[in-house]
Amino acid sequence: MPFSLPYVVPTTGAPASYHEVSQITLDKASLSSVATIGSYVSADTKTAGKLPLYTQQIQISGLPDSTDPFQWCEQMLIEAAPDQPTSGIAPNRYTFAGGTMIEADAPTTT
Protein backbone atom coordinates (compact mmCIF):
# COMPACT_ATOMS: atom_id res chain seq x y z
CA MET A 1 0.00 0.00 0.00
CA PRO A 2 1.74 3.21 -1.12
CA PHE A 3 1.81 6.42 0.87
CA SER A 4 1.58 10.14 0.25
CA LEU A 5 3.82 12.90 1.55
CA PRO A 6 5.12 16.09 -0.08
CA TYR A 7 8.80 15.43 -0.73
CA VAL A 8 11.44 17.39 -2.63
CA VAL A 9 13.83 15.14 -4.53
CA PRO A 10 17.31 16.06 -3.27
CA THR A 11 19.07 15.59 -6.61
CA THR A 12 16.76 17.76 -8.74
CA GLY A 13 14.48 19.74 -6.43
CA ALA A 14 11.44 18.23 -8.16
CA PRO A 15 8.33 17.65 -6.04
CA ALA A 16 7.13 14.08 -5.47
CA SER A 17 4.02 13.14 -3.51
CA TYR A 18 3.49 9.42 -4.15
CA HIS A 19 5.88 6.84 -2.71
CA GLU A 20 5.94 3.07 -2.93
CA VAL A 21 8.20 0.33 -1.63
CA SER A 22 9.39 -1.68 -4.62
CA GLN A 23 11.87 -4.04 -2.96
CA ILE A 24 12.67 -5.32 0.53
CA THR A 25 15.86 -6.96 1.72
CA LEU A 26 15.64 -8.87 5.01
CA ASP A 27 18.63 -9.47 7.27
CA LYS A 28 17.88 -12.19 9.81
CA ALA A 29 21.24 -11.83 11.58
CA SER A 30 20.82 -8.12 12.36
CA LEU A 31 17.00 -8.24 12.57
CA SER A 32 16.65 -5.40 10.10
CA SER A 33 15.02 -4.68 6.77
CA VAL A 34 16.08 -2.41 3.92
CA ALA A 35 13.26 -0.94 1.86
CA THR A 36 13.80 0.47 -1.63
CA ILE A 37 11.34 3.32 -2.17
CA GLY A 38 10.37 4.87 -5.48
CA SER A 39 9.07 8.46 -5.36
CA TYR A 40 6.73 9.66 -8.11
CA VAL A 41 5.16 13.00 -9.01
CA SER A 42 1.74 11.46 -8.30
CA ALA A 43 -0.17 8.19 -8.32
CA ASP A 44 -1.24 9.00 -11.86
CA THR A 45 2.36 9.04 -13.11
CA LYS A 46 2.98 5.64 -11.48
CA THR A 47 -0.22 4.25 -13.00
CA ALA A 48 0.83 5.60 -16.40
CA GLY A 49 3.99 3.49 -16.19
CA LYS A 50 6.41 6.36 -15.65
CA LEU A 51 9.68 5.79 -13.82
CA PRO A 52 10.17 7.15 -10.31
CA LEU A 53 11.77 10.59 -9.97
CA TYR A 54 13.98 9.21 -7.23
CA THR A 55 14.78 5.87 -5.65
CA GLN A 56 16.41 5.41 -2.26
CA GLN A 57 17.03 2.71 0.31
CA ILE A 58 16.10 3.11 3.96
CA GLN A 59 17.06 0.70 6.72
CA ILE A 60 14.34 -0.21 9.21
CA SER A 61 14.97 -1.96 12.52
CA GLY A 62 13.02 -5.21 12.68
CA LEU A 63 11.58 -7.73 10.30
CA PRO A 64 8.06 -7.76 8.83
CA ASP A 65 5.57 -9.26 11.24
CA SER A 66 2.61 -9.43 8.85
CA THR A 67 1.49 -11.33 5.81
CA ASP A 68 2.20 -8.26 3.62
CA PRO A 69 5.83 -7.22 4.14
CA PHE A 70 5.47 -4.28 1.74
CA GLN A 71 2.59 -2.81 3.73
CA TRP A 72 4.59 -3.34 6.95
CA CYS A 73 7.58 -1.46 5.52
CA GLU A 74 5.43 1.39 4.24
CA GLN A 75 3.71 1.69 7.64
CA MET A 76 7.10 1.73 9.38
CA LEU A 77 8.40 4.41 6.99
CA ILE A 78 5.62 6.88 7.83
CA GLU A 79 5.78 6.45 11.61
CA ALA A 80 6.79 9.50 13.63
CA ALA A 81 10.43 9.96 14.60
CA PRO A 82 11.19 9.39 18.29
CA ASP A 83 11.64 12.42 20.54
CA GLN A 84 15.12 11.26 21.50
CA PRO A 85 17.26 10.17 18.53
CA THR A 86 18.73 6.72 18.93
CA SER A 87 22.34 6.18 17.94
CA GLY A 88 22.94 3.83 15.05
CA ILE A 89 19.82 4.83 13.11
CA ALA A 90 20.41 5.49 9.42
CA PRO A 91 20.34 9.25 8.70
CA ASN A 92 17.41 8.93 6.29
CA ARG A 93 15.32 6.60 8.49
CA TYR A 94 12.53 9.14 9.14
CA THR A 95 12.51 10.83 5.71
CA PHE A 96 8.84 9.96 5.22
CA ALA A 97 7.62 10.41 8.82
CA GLY A 98 4.10 11.81 8.84
CA GLY A 99 3.08 10.36 5.49
CA THR A 100 -0.40 9.02 4.88
CA MET A 101 -1.21 5.53 3.63
CA ILE A 102 -3.16 5.53 0.35
CA GLU A 103 -6.05 3.10 -0.02
CA ALA A 104 -6.00 1.09 -3.23
CA ASP A 105 -9.20 2.67 -4.56
CA ALA A 106 -8.63 6.21 -3.25
CA PRO A 107 -8.86 9.06 -5.75
CA THR A 108 -5.55 10.55 -6.80
CA THR A 109 -4.47 14.17 -6.81
CA THR A 110 -1.57 15.91 -8.47
Number of domains: 1
Class computed from helices, strands and strand pairing = mainly beta
The helicity comes to 10-25%
Low-confidence stretches: none
Instruction: Give the neighbour order of strands across the main sheet.
Output: 4-3-2-1-5
Mean pLDDT: 90
Shape call: globular
- The CA-CA distance between the termini, in Å, is 18 Å
The proportion of residues in beta strands is 25-35%
User: Could you state the oligomeric state of the chains shown?
Assistant: single chain
The Cα radius of gyration reads 14 Å
Biggest β-sheet, characterized? 5 strands, antiparallel
Number of helices: 2
Order of helices and strands: EEEHEHE
Quick one: how many beta strands?
5
Topology (SSEs and partners):
Layout: E1 3-8, E2 15-27, E3 32-40, H1 43-47, E4 54-61, H2 69-78, E5 100-101
Antiparallel strand pairs: 1-2, 1-5, 2-3, 3-4
Structure overview:
- This protein is 14% helix and 35% strand.
- With 110 residues, it is mostly beta strands.
- It has one domain (3-82).
What's this entry about, in short?
The chain is mostly beta strands. It has helices spanning 43-47, 69-78; strands at 3-8, 15-27, 32-40, 54-61, 100-101. The protein has one domain.
Distinctive features:
110 residues, mainly beta
